[in-house]
Amino acid sequence: MKDITSAFAPNRAISPMTLRIIVAAQVAVLLLIWINSPFPVLPQPDEVARAFRTLWFEQGLGRELWTSFTLNLEALALTVLISLALSYLTVLPFFRPVAAAISKGRFLGLVGLTLPLTIMSGGGRPLKLSLLVFGMTVFFVTSMASEVLSIPKEKFDHARTLRMNEWQVVWEVVILGTADKAIEVLRQNAAIGWMMLTMVEGISRAEGGVGAMLLNQNKHLHVPEVFAIQITILLLAILQDYGIGVLQRIVCPYSRLTLERR
After folding, report:
1. For residue range 69-122, what is the model confidence (pLDDT) as tens digits?
2. Helices (H), 89-204
3. Sign of torsion, CA 197 199 203 206?
4. 3-state class of 7 per DSSP?
5. What are phi and psi of 5, to 5 degrees?
6. Distance between CA atoms of 208 and 216, rounded to whole angstroms?
7. CATH, domain range 51-261
8. What is the reported pTM?
């Protein structure tokens, strides 16, 4: 009982079991609200379940989901390579304006970039890939470059006292020292990729994908099917996010200690 009351007090810690009870209660309340929703346009859970079975066994939802998942992973891998290179290069003054200019690309809409990227990529999967990479890179560089520039000067000085040259300092302090931050930024941008997926697969419907399927169902006002696809995307994205979190704890176990101290 004491743990439950602590959940309503600021800056209090609660046990994992209490947290599970709170989450279960909140989920139950949300389901009750959904079932008793006064809005007739919202489908009931059993309707969504039937729609999911139809989509999975008759319309190839699993195949389309795999197409979108592999596209997202490929875009994420390219984003990491490009963004980390640009972010780490900000230790060189020459590249700081380049990273700053790329970070400003987050204010651009992807629709306006469709024509030039179509001409450069040739359309189809390369177009979808380039749109996703651009959309995630501008945010990844913004976050990661900020992490690099916010490294305390004392860490650089400490490395120099160990007789490291400047490139060794970059490796130890900038690259290894921000590895946990890089994985956290990766988690955030993986979520951004899923949010952009429907729009990107709507712009170029080559190879299909779960986003194109979602747009088709939405166009024909198949609301239970839309809910089923959205929930499927949500669950897969949460699973991916959990996997990246596990990777962070394995590669950078000290990051969990930092969070616990907070």
Report:
1. 999 999 999 999 999 999 999 999 999 999 999 999 888 877 778 888 888 888
2. 96-103, 114-121, 125-149, 153-161, 166-169, 179-203
3. positive
4. coil
5. -65, -30
6. 11
7. 1.10.3720.10
8. 0.83
